[in-house]
Amino acid sequence: MGRTSQRKGRRGEIELSEKLSAYGYSVAPGAALSFGGVPDITGLPGIHVECKRRECPDILAALRQAETDAERFGDGVPVVFWRKNRGRWVALLTLETFMELYRKQQA
Questions:
Q1: What string of pLDDT tens digits covers the 107 residues of the chain?
Q2: Model pTM?
Q3: How many structural domains is the chain composed of?
Q4: Could you tell me the strand order of the sheet in which 41-42 lies?
Q5: Exposure winner among 40, 53, 79, 83, fewest CB in 10 A?
Q6: For residue 27, what are the domain limits?
């Protein structure tokens, strides 16, 4: 990954952290240039955040990465947060993960 992409990704992590903080959560972006050594964002209880800030990410690869990292870090349900240029942030998760969350909410 080039330096420009790394900077854009880091800016995305900081921006998403600020958005989540505005919802009242005490979150923080991971360490700069950690190369996967720490989660992208911490402090959202029960959710493993995989942050993608690019025009056309490989969504399936991002979901696989989120699932793998959620297992490795043991920090919750894998969710990819993604935003393209001038777009809104969206949260992406598998149907199985959605149904797991939905069932818990219904209980």
A1: 677 777 888 899 999 999 999 999 999 998 776 566 789 999 999 999 999 998 888 999 999 999 999 999 988 999 999 999 999 999 999 999 999 989 988 97
A2: 0.86
A3: 1
A4: 28-29, 41-42, 47-52, 77-82, 90-92
A5: 83
A6: 3-106
